[in-house]
Design goal:
- The structure is a single chain.
- About 75% of the residues lie in helices and about 0% in strands.
- It is rod-shaped.
- By secondary structure, it is mostly helical.
- The protein has a domain at about 1-95.
- The chain contains 6 helices and no strands.
Length: about 200
């Protein structure tokens, strides 16, 4: 049991031997409560001496045991103070990191708002305007591709599309359709003998 206490104390001792020097500098305290290094060293040496004692000398009157029992509470209170000071220091660091995180979030949101208002908004208006122009141009191209440029009469492409739509509608409704075709090649001969106005 004594070896476990020694191991625990050595671990605590190795955490920070110069704690009081740092405590004095950071907190502005002139007189630290105790020299923890000396207290821990003495406690460890007493515990080691008690562990080396033969079993016949392990009595309640053993001076090492008396020292350990008498000073263990004081040592634990001092260590508790050290741990609470570390905790306060860490909590202050965590608070400053939270503040920094909040500040970073606000800066990022303001940057995104700036980008949205002054860069993407005009760009979106330009894209919308160009889209409307593109749709109008596509409608004009669709019209021009379906009529003859000279007579403005529907061409073969328009005829094929209309025939496909009408055929599908007739099949769906179980109706018949009629198609009359005539070939007018006569105007070519007329053009040779008369003039076009």
């Amino acid at each position: 049991m004594a070896n476990y206490k020694i191991l625990g104390l050595v671990c605590l001792y190795n955490m920070d031997v110069n704690f009081h020097r740092r405590y004095e500098i950071n907190r502005g305290i002139v007189n630290p409560p105790m020299n923890m290094q000396a207290q821990i060293n003495r406690y460890i040496s007493e515990a080691q001496a008690l562990a080396k004692e033969p079993t016949k000398l392990l009595t309640p009157a053993n001076p090492h045991l008396i020292y350990l029992l008498h000073n263990s509470e004081t040592l634990l209170e001092s260590l508790n103070q050290i741990v609470s000071l570390y905790q306060q220091e860490d909590e202050a660091k965590i608070q400053s990191l939270k503040w920094l995180e909040t500040l970073s979030g606000v800066i990022i949101l303001l940057t995104l708002a700036f980008l949205g208002l002054y860069i993407f908004r005009p760009l979106a208006k330009t894209l919308l305007k160009e889209r409307v122009q593109l749709e109008q141009t596509n409608q004009e191209l669709g019209f021009l591709s379906s009529v003859d440029g000279l007579t403005l009469i529907a061409n073969r492409r328009q005829f094929d599309q209309f025939l496909t739509q009408t055929w599908s509608l007739a099949v769906r409704n179980a109706e018949t359709i009629a198609l009359i075709m005539c070939d007018i090649d006569f105007p070519a001969g007329v053009g040779k003998t008369s003039t076009w106005v």
